[in-house]
Specification:
Elements lengths: L3 H27 L5 E2 L4 E6 L6 E5 L3 E6 L4 E7 H5 L2 E5 L2 E5 L4 E2 L5 E6 L4 E4 L2 E19 L2 E17 L2 E17 L2 E18 L2 E16 L5 E4 L3 E6 L5 E3 L2
Parallel strand pairs: 1-8, 3-7, 3-10, 4-9, 4-11, 10-11, 11-12, 12-13, 13-14, 14-15, 15-16, 15-17, 16-18
Antiparallel strand pairs: 2-5, 5-9, 6-7
Length: 247
């Protein structure tokens, strides 16, 4: 399939990011980083930005993403957690992160709005969900941390990259969907109507997809692909798994 080179680069980068995330979280538990208790005072803070078309999140918290006429970033949570949540622009991407460690249970929510999105990335721990449909010519969804991504999309090309752990649930339409998985995952995408779907699985997980024209699957890891629709199916299975018709 025509995504091998990107797959190799992605796997290396994604696993490094995941290792860094888990190392940071583990350090909090082990006492290597001094942790403080999250405040009981909840605040909402607005951050002003005027240009980005993607978001990368590396926090412990939940993120909602929506398309709108302008740009908006709103953060709600304990005041000391919000104060330690950074937002910056790296190229064309909004980066949301934190180097702080907090004890106790707390809720942190980040709401991001922009006219267009080309990339949505989860590198921390938590959930990302879209509010309404995300429309794009090409949309890249990345799970490099741990959690769940729930998205309604309308894209010519959807690229899903997984090197973390969790679940991705899609609905909507995509003419082409490429899935590259080096992590542990479940993809629930029966409600994502695609023409062509290409799957490369080197990790562990099951994919539930719909395709009308072509389904191309290569499994070198451990997992199954369940499909609906009547595509022409091509498979190469070196690992453990199968491609199963669920019509």
């Amino acid at each position: 399939m025509p995504i091998d080179k990107k797959k190799q680069k992605y796997e290396k980068t994604g696993l490094i990011l995941l290792a860094s995330t888990l190392l940071f979280l583990g350090s909090c538990d082990s006492g290597d980083i001094e942790c403080v208790r999250a405040s009981d005072e909840v605040i909402t803070e607005i951050r002003d930005f005027n240009s980005f078309d993607g978001v990368v999140t590396n926090i412990v918290g939940d993120v909602s993403v929506s398309q709108g006429a302008g740009y908006a970033v709103k953060i709600t949570g304990p005041d000391n957690v919000v104060a330690q949540t950074s937002t910056s622009i790296d190229g064309h991407l909004l980066v949301v992160g934190s180097d702080a460690c907090f004890n106790g249970a707390y809720d942190l929510k980040v709401e991001v709005t922009a006219p267009d999105f080309s990339l949505i990335n989860l590198s921390g721990v938590g959930d990302i969900s879209t509010v309404g449909i995300i429309s794009a010519g090409r949309l890249e969804m990345e799970m490099m941390g741990a959690g769940k991504i729930t998205a309604q999309v309308d894209a010519d090309t959807l690229l899903t990259l997984i090197s973390g752990t969790g679940e991705i649930a899609y609905n909507g339409t995509a003419a082409r969907h490429d899935l590259i998985c080096a992590g542990k995952y479940t993809l629930n995408a029966y409600d994502l109507m695609t023409e062509d779907t290409y799957i490369q699985l080197t990790g562990t997980g099951d994919s539930y997809i719909s395709a009308s024209n072509r389904l191309d699957v290569r499994i070198t890891g451990n997992g199954n692909v369940f499909y609906k629709g009547n595509p022409v199916v091509t498979r190469e299975i070196i690992g453990t798994g199968d491609v199963l018709d669920k019509n």
